[in-house]
Amino acid sequence: MVKLMTISRRKLIEPQITPFYHVINRCVRRAYLCGDDPYNGKNYHHRRGWIVNKIKQLAAVFCIDVCAYAVMSNHYHLVLKIDIEQQQKLTQEAVISRWLQLFNGHPIAVDFLKEGQIAADKQKQRTAITLHINHELLHLSFKLLMVKRMTISRRKLIEPQITPFYHVINRCVRRAYLCGDDPYNGKNYHHRRGWIVNKIKQLAAVFCIDVCAYAVMSNHYHLVLKIDTEQQQKLTPEEVISRWLQLFNGHPIAVDFLKEGQIGADKQQALSNLVAEWQQRLGSISWFMRCLNEEIARKANKEDQCKGAFWEGRFKSQALLDEQALLSCMMYVDLNPIRAGVTPSLEQSDFTSIQQRIREYQQLKTSAKRSPSNKGHFQLLPFVGGEHKTKKAGINFAFADYLELIDWTGRCIRNDKKGFIASSQPKILQQLGITSDAWLEHSEQFMERYANVSGKWSQMCAFKQRIGGQWCKGKSASHQLHPN
């Protein structure tokens, strides 16, 4: 089903047509604005005061009058009137003074308010700032006191030319449960893990993106992905269209071309544009995650008989710039259930890539034929180190060495084995020169130690500068993973 584009708020709210508007906002899923919460028994009546006090403050700042309001248990209503006449009469001093009650102002505007005048070279800039603020005072969205930093564009955070490997995480909103036992309503959502894994399987077969590791937890999931740019560039127009139609309704021109094998000259340019756009999307992690998250959210909302956001926000991504970053991140993901105390062993770690890899590895050792139990699994990006170096591109370590490392790490971080570190280090750590303590810290705190990127410190700084950042998190952690 094709989703209609959201209509711009500027088109929906036009003071020249009418100054009166009814606005409504609703809490997400099971969140409670006020009143008695049936899930945890708590009373949130005091939150009504938050709403009313904030409305009072904003009504004194904005050129907007409140005609009516009602605060309910999980939503509120407002009837507002935009006072254009009052807005147009505001002096520059009044505009700046009002704005500074809510936000940090521009230094030029702050200086003008203090001194009462400003240098001629800054007069033009001050006028532009005042006009911008004056326009914002007309906006109907009641704003928060805290200024939130702009989100970095996903195109800057994910650049296959820099690295093909990325760690992505998505978390359910507030009390929503992805799987497992929900303590609020007593229901078990274990079957939802299958939704995630089956969808990943489908998407991995369609997109030019390989799955290195995954773990599905109770209210979030992790994926380590590799963008296969080479495969993406080799796709023929027929393959691009065929793959895209497995997920979406295609354009009639593309559908006809796939059926007939040819298209009229007058439609050739339109077809080329479609193929180019779809081919680019088939190598996009953003589109991969969009397809995954949207379907899971729809299914969960239907099952819970509710609507609204199921995910906390857009997914978080971390660029993995080298082998050390990739290895430590995969270890962090594979050990997630053990670290959380959900399972005592890797073999019992359901809906994780490490369990899938171990089962496949054991079956290869015992039988040449594939077991029927693996029917629902998909092909993970293989380990190609050691004796597998001649095979296709993959993770540049031998799986036997990775298995030794993860088994050693898992024993060290288990709650009932705290403080236990074997005298002999795993082979991979010896090769990379990483100390036991540094490795164990990364396997438990990878998410906390890095922000959007992990790798060698100089490469991390270069990546951060490329996306326009001024500060990079993880200097000491990077030096621990790259001692040489």
- Rg over C-alpha atoms, rounded to the nearest angstrom: 27 Å
* Biggest sheet character: 5 strands, mixed
Helicity, as a percent range: 40-55%
**Low-pLDDT stretches:** 140-148
Please write the string of helix (H) and strand (E) elements. Answer: HEHEEHHHHHEHEEHHHHHEHHHHHHEHH
Can you describe this structure?
The chain is of the alpha+beta class. Helix content is 44%, strand content 11%. It has helices at residues 9-12, 47-61, 84-89, 92-99, 107-115, 123-136, 154-157, 192-206, 229-234, 237-244, 252-260, 268-281, 285-304, 323-334, 336-339, 353-366, 399-413, 427-432, 436-449, 457-466, 475-481; strands at residues 20-26, 64-71, 75-82, 165-171, 209-216, 220-227, 316-320, 453-454. The strands form two sheets. The protein has a five-stranded mixed sheet, with helices on both faces. A hairpin with a 3-residue loop joins strand 5 (209-216) and strand 6. Mean pLDDT is 81; it is low at 140-148.
